[in-house]
Amino acid sequence: MIISILFLLVGVALAWLGGSLFVDGAVGLARWARWPVAVIGVTVAAFGTSSPELLVAIQAAQDGVPQISLGDVLGSNVVNIALVLALVLSLSGMKVDDAGVRRDWNCALAVPFIMAAVLWDGWFSRLDAMVLLALFVAWLVMVVRHARRHRARNKEEIIEAGRASSLKIVVQVVAGLALLIGAAQFVVHGGKGMALALGWSPFIVGAVVIALATGTPELATTIISRSRGQHDVGLGNILGSNVFNSLFVASVAALIHPFQVKPSELMPSLAFGVVTTLLILPGQSGLLGRWRGFVLLTLYVFYILSTLEKSPSL
């Protein structure tokens, strides 16, 4: 048990450092391509911060425990909003301006319903994965079209960012990815050990423990973007990460290793995914008040308790 916890802690540290490097490099590349800040948040930064979940999915599927990945994906979606975004909102609130945020909010809200429909038969097949991937591609096409329509937005910021060394950007991407690969190894092995020691199913370990570990890059990115006043990147990163996690990352694990699921285990993550997403719909003014952060943090506590209630013995 102690060794498993140490593995997880090392994985968290590597995921934080690797995720931060990867996101910085990926955002640098996107700005060099003259993409708007909000679009960077929902695509490149979201992909970067979801990379720990992706590598955990690949490693878990190869190790024969893809349920860990599904739990990680659905749990991370709740963690991203009810813990990561909630902490930021509870401190100072947030204001968002980009019109694409509402589009991505709609997609993020639809994701739990799509996952429920696909997995309700108790099996995550390769056909299910291909359906989710097709939806992911459709969403990505919409986002890229938005980027092209708003290519000149934030022109001064993009030009300034474009002056960064291309070598530095490449080093950040490569070093970050290498650290994330190592983090995935530690997180999966630590998660498997905890599942055996606590008598929890792999899905529950993924939803409660590993989701918290792989959520560290989102926390770092959201806090950094908030401190720099780039609210669109913070919220866009959260929404984009949730879409990436459900439609892309979960599909990768199922393509490698199709597996059975227990709908009763999925329900807390899916239900709280819907409720928490509803709570971050920006109003007409684009403001997200501090009270939403406090409500979301309370919901996160209830989410953990309700998920653990569903934990069967191995």
The low-pLDDT segments are: 156-162
CATH class: Mainly Alpha
Largest sheet: 2 strands, antiparallel
Give average pLDDT, whole number: 79
- Number of DSSP helices? 12
Which structural class is indicated by helix and strand composition?
mainly alpha
- The fraction of residues in strands falls at under 5%
Describe, in short, the structure shown.
This protein is an all-alpha fold and 314 residues long. It has 12 helices and 4 strands.
Describe the structure.
There is one protein chain. 81% of the residues lie in helices and 3% in strands. It contains twelve helices and four strands; from the N terminus they run αααβαβααααααβαβα. With 314 residues, it is mostly helical. Residues 156-162 have low confidence and may be disordered. Helix 2 crosses helix 7, helix 4 packs antiparallel against helix 11 and helix 9 (216-227) packs antiparallel against helix 10. The protein has one domain: Up-down Bundle (A middle domain of Talin 1).
